[in-house]
Specification:
With about 325 residues, the protein is α/β, with parallel strands linked by helices. It has a single domain (about 5-330), classed as Aldolase class I (TIM Barrel). Helices cover about 45% and strands about 15% of the residues. The chain is built from 13 helices and nine strands. Helix 3 (about 65-75) crosses helix 13. The longest helix has 19 residues, at about 310-330. The chain is globular, with a radius of gyration of 19 Å. The termini are far apart. It binds iron/sulfur cluster (SF4). Iron/sulfur cluster (SF4) binds near residues 39, 46 and 86.
Length: about 325
């Protein structure tokens, strides 16, 4: 039987409405560094020589920069999707310090996507972290081994099992458009079920020159994965990435049952035609958008910084960074 796409989206939308409030938000992913020490996943911009030359291993993002990012997000209703960054760039103690600080800014436990962690590390982050994410990218085992040769699934599976035992929430990331087939969705469903995931983040592949990939998946195909997952897992939190140049399928992915959108360079494109289109499409989908992507509200930023329990030097660095970011956002 041929599947009717509109019917599928309608059903997914109904399942969403039965299980969630009528809102949507922007999930901000905060990067700790641009370099990845693994750097071998075939679709990823961090695997390209150009990227490796441009971003040296030693080039960490400054702590004040990523904390400023968090402070802006916290005050504009962006929810932290996760704190992430390339593999093996910061020491664990450095990461722990950043995790504590970001959690303090958001005044809540946060999500992490920082690779596989050991039990001792999970114990240390527990007071500040709600959930951890496994970036599986594709759940079809053969395709996975081909595309992510140095990031096998098994250690992630073990990690999620450990996280489950320690009462963390769990999530995964999936990229649509890597060469998977529709029938591979069963591998994905098995993974979600096996690990009792509470959340999933989908991304539409963004082709990067030098990776061999040349096109993004069709929006309908991308929405098909989201809709099927929504119907199969009514209570799963689904976050769906956009591609910066084409956020015009925001409505479609919300209609397909995504809770939130992510992966949009919002600091760079704040109050742009693209962010205006995103807000309009959220409205068209009938959801209330609880994040600000366009009009900057009046906020007493000095007060917000003064309230932080950081030393004066760090607060001053945040103040300077914030001034720079806000200047760009007001343009
Ligand atoms: S581990 Fe992540 S950041 Fe590193 S190359 Fe693979 S997909 Fe890219």
């Amino acid at each position: 039987m041929v599947e009717d796409f509109n019917e599928l989206i309608k059903e997914a939308g109904e399942v969403y409405s039965e299980n969630f409030d009528n809102i949507a938000w922007f999930g901000r992913c905060i990067f700790m560094s641009w370099y990845c020490d693994l750097g071998t996943c075939k679709f990823c911009f961090r695997s390209t020589t150009k990227h490796k030359i441009k971003h040296a291993k030693s080039a960490k993002r400054s702590v004040s920069s990523l904390l400023t990012d968090a402070l802006i997000g916290r005050n504009l209703g962006w929810r932290i999707e996760f704190l992430t960054g390339g593999y093996r760039i910061f020491s664990f103690d450095e990461m722990l310090d950043i995790i504590k600080k970001v959690s303090h800014i958001f005044q809540q436990k946060i999500w992490l996507n920082l690779g596989v962690m050991e039990k001792k590390q999970l114990e240390a982050i527990k007071p500040y972290v709600e959930g951890v994410c496994a970036s599986i990218e594709t759940a079809e085992p053969k395709l996975h081994d081909l595309i992510c040769p140095d990031k096998p699934i098994k250690p992630y599976s073990d990690f999620l099992k450990l996280a489950e035992d320690m009462a963390f929430k769990k999530s995964m990331t999936i990229v649509v458009g890597l060469g998977e087939k529709k029938e591979d969705i069963d591998y994905l469903f098995d993974f979600i079920e096996k690990h009792k995931l509470e959340r999933i983040t989908f991304y539409a592949l963004k082709p990067v020159r030098g990776t061999g990939y040349t096109k993004s998946p069709e929006p309908k195909y991308y929405a098909w994965w989201i809709a099927k997952t929504r119907i199969r897992f009514p209570k799963l939190e689904i976050i769906a990435g956009l591609t910066p140049k084409q956020p015009d399928y925001t409505k479609l992915i919300l209609d397909a049952g995504a809770n939130a959108i992510t992966k949009f360079p919002v600091l760079k494109k704040f109050n742009s035609p693209e962010t205006q289109l995103i807000e309009k499409m959220v409205k068209d989908s009938g959801r209330e958008f609880v994040s600000v992507l366009n009009k900057l509200p009046e906020i007493d930023w000095d007060k917000k910084i003064d309230e932080l329990e950081f030393d004066d030097e760090l607060k001053e660095e945040i103040r300077q960074k914030l001034e720079m970011y806000l200047k760009k956002m007001k343009k």
